[in-house]
Specification:
- The chain has one domain.
- The termini are far apart.
- The chain is mainly α and 102 residues long.
- The protein has five helices and no strands.
- Helix 1 runs antiparallel to helix 2 (34-42), helix 1 runs parallel beside helix 4 and helix 4 packs across helix 5.
């Protein structure tokens, strides 16, 4: 299977931004805060317009961020495709995405 090209779909970028902001709040213990709820509400519509590939990428990003929050979780074998996708996202998307709230 070939790697899919990276997308600059505005809905995808909104989801990446939302996932990042939500995980930052979770790291601060604010997963049940009004700010977290607002992020969840704001990402409902963008999620619906994503392709399956984009949804998989967002899920993968979220899983990776969860692994940073819970370092005691048992390590999983590394899937090279998973690593390449995550590496690509971390190098191209995350630095380019502005925070939801500046």
């Amino acid at each position: 299977m070939l790697l899919q090209p990276f997308t600059m779909n505005p809905s995808f970028l909104a989801m990446v931004r939302g996932v990042r902001e939500l995980h930052l709040l979770m790291a601060e213990g604010k997963e049940d805060s009004p700010e977290a709820d607002a992020i969840r509400d704001a990402t409902d519509a963008p999620w619906e317009s994503l392709s399956e590939i984009e949804r998989r990428r967002v899920r993968t990003l979220s899983e990776d961020l969860y692994s940073l929050l819970e370092p005691s979780a048992p390590a999983r074998p590394i899937n090279p495709r998973h690593f390449l996708t995550t590496h690509h996202l971390s190098r191209t998307v995350v630095p380019a995405v502005a925070p939801v709230s500046a």
